[in-house]
Amino acid sequence: MQPDNPYASTRGSITSKQLPAFDEAMIQKYNRSGPRYTSYPTALEFTPIPVDLETKILKNREARAPLSLYFHIPFCRHLCYYCACNKIITKKNSDSGDYLEYLIAEIKLKRRLLTTEGGKNPVVKQLHLGGGTPTFLRDEEMVQLWEFLQTQFEFLPEDEGDYSIEIDPRELSGNTLKVLRDLGFNRISLGVQDLDESVQIAVNRVHSAELIENVLTEARELGFHSINIDLIYGLPHQTPETLEQTVRRIIEMAPDRLSVFNYAHLPERFKAQRQIKEADLPNPAAKLTMLGNTINTLTEAGYQYIGIDHFAKPDDELAVAQREGKLHRNFQGYTIMGDCDLLGFGVSSISQIANANSRYILQNDTDLQAYQATIDAAQHNLAIMPAVKVIKTSIKDRLREYVIMNLLCHDYIDFKDVNQKFGIDAITYFIDEIAQLGAMQEDRLIDMDAAGIRVLPKGRLLGRNVAMVFDEYLDKKHKNRFSKVI
Length: 486
Known about the structure:
The protein is of the alpha/beta class. The chain folds into two domains: 16-30 and 395-478, Orthogonal Bundle (Arc Repressor Mutant, subunit A), CATH 1.10.10; 45-342, pyruvate-formate lyase- activating enzyme (Alpha-Beta Horseshoe), CATH 3.80.30.20. The chain is built from 17 helices and 21 strands. Strands 2, 5, 6, 7, 8, 9, 10, 11, 12 and 15 form a ten-stranded mixed sheet that branches. A four-stranded antiparallel sheet has the order 1-18-17-16. Strands 19-21-20 form a three-stranded antiparallel sheet. β9, α8 and β10 form a beta-alpha-beta unit.
C-alpha cells in the first residue's frame, strides 16, 4: 500500500539501499560549486528591506504557527584558522554582558509585534544558540537569557521540544553543562574538527581526545537527548590515515550525530584562513580518499547518511524523520521542525516567516556596531527594526523550494504530490530541467519515470548537483560565491 506521505515510501527500513555509494569518477565529473540550500532562494538574493516591512511581516504571521528561535553569539576567545564565519575574537567578559542586553532589547522589539491566540505567549518548539561560541556567555548570563525568554514565550516541555546549543569543549566551566541541562537544553553540538595534534596546531584549535570524551560522558549522565560532533576534512597536515584514526576514535565515543564538512580554502575572502599555508593542505585526490573512507567507516559503524555532510544513528530523531518522510531543511540545517517560523536574534541572524500569502527571509546587519546602533535607535523610534535585508518568495519560488528540499531531504520528488500541491503538471512544467538530468540518469545517479525523480545510492553524495538543476537563480553572477559540493 502507498502511504499517505510518498517520501516515506522511498526510505523503507534501515537497509543498504539508504547507504551512499562512493564513486570517485562520478564525483570528479560532477563536482562543481553550488549552494548548501539552507533556503531557497539562497541568501545571495537578499535586497535592502523597505521601511516598516519587518513590522508588517511579524504582525501578519500566522498566530498558530509555532516558533523556532535562533540566537547568534558572535564571540570567540580563540581564532580558529579554518574559520569562514563572521566572529569576534575577544577575552573580555564584559562583551557578553553588553551583547546580552542587545539581545533582550531585540526580543522585546519583536515580541510586541507577534499576534497570539487568546493573549497567550507564542509557542516555541525549537531553540538554538549558535556562533561564534555561545558558551562565551557566562553561566549566570545564560540563566538570565533563558528566564527572560520564559516570560515572553511558551516553551514545549523539554521532552517534546528541541533546545540546542553549540559548544567549544575548551571553553566550558565546571558547571556549564549542568546549568544548560537544568534550564532545559536537551541537545548539544561540539566542534571537534580533528583529533590529530599536528592538524590541531596548524588550525589553532588544540584539545585532547580525553577532553571530548569527558564532555560526552558528562552530557550523557546529565540526560542530554542528542549529541552532535563536527569534523572537517581537508585541513592542513591531514592525511587519509590520520583522519581515519580520528573518525574511528569518535565512533568509539558514539555521538548521536556527526557533521563532516569539507574545508574550502578561500583566504581572499576569509582573513583567518591566511594563517594556513596552502602547501600544508592535502591535495584533491587525498581529500576524495578522506571523504570516501569517512563515509564507508561511518556507514559500516551503523550511522545513517542524512545528506549534505550529515550522519545520524538510526534511532536519532533526524534519521527517523528522514525514514518517515518528515525531514526538513532551513537555516539551522536539517530539522524535524519544518512547521515552525524561524525567528532570529543577534548580529547577522536570519529569520524565515510565513503568512497567508507570502514567505519572507530577513537578515540582521552582519556588522556588530551597526547592529547595536540599530537596536539603540529602535528604543527611541518604534518604526525602526533590526532587519536590513529581505527576500520575498513567490509561489514559483516555493514550488522550486519544495522540489529542491525534498530531493535533499528524501532523495525523491513525487510528481503527483507536486501536481496536487501546486496545481501544475510537473513533467510539463519542468521539461527543461528533466532534459538536463538526462546525463545523470545515464550515469545512474538518478532514476526518472512518470512517477518522479529518485536519487540513487551513487548520486546521494551529489544530491546538491541534482537540486541545482531546479535553481532558477544559479547563474554566472553567483558561480564564484560557493564552495564545491565535495
